[in-house]
């Protein structure tokens, strides 16, 4: 459950980083990256040790969401450097 909550925080920070430029953009980008990596790591660990189907499903979705956020952050950083932000 903790990994899923962290992945939701990563998604929210990822969405908000598009609305701000400058220092706030970089801070939100780092927060989204931190929480997405944390959700991937915690989701994999929780999925390995969990016996309940609900916890395994939440852990799997947290890993998938974390990977999607990391891919989105990579693409946004490439575009921001390309556009000169």
Structural class assignment:
mainly alpha
Residue share in β-strands: under 5%
Distance between the termini: 36 Å
The radius of gyration is 14 Å
Helix content: over 70%
Written as H for each helix and E for each strand, in order along the chain, the element string is: HHH
Biggest β-sheet description = none
Poorly predicted segments: none
Number of domains: 1
Key features?
mainly alpha, 85 residues, 86% helix
Write the SSE topology.
Elements: H1 2-16, H2 23-49, H3 53-83
Helix pairs in contact: 1-2, 1-3, 2-3
Write a brief structural summary.
The protein is mainly alpha-helical and 85 residues long.
Model description:
This protein has 85 residues and is mainly α. It has one domain (2-83). The chain has three helices and no strands. Helix 1 (2-16) packs antiparallel against helix 2, helix 1 packs parallel to helix 3 (53-83) and helix 2 (23-49) packs antiparallel against helix 3. The chain is elongated, with a radius of gyration of 14 Å. The chain starts with a helix and ends with a helix.
């Amino acid at each position: 459950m903790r990994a899923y909550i962290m992945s939701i925080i990563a998604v929210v920070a990822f969405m908000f980083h598009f609305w701000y430029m400058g220092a706030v953009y970089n801070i939100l980008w780092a927060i989204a990256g931190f929480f997405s990596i944390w959700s991937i790591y915690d989701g994999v660990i929780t999925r390995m040790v969990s016996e309940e189907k609900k916890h395994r499903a939440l852990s799997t979705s947290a890993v998938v969401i974390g990977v999607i956020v990391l891919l989105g952050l990579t693409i946004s950083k490439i575009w921001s450097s390309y556009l000169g932000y």
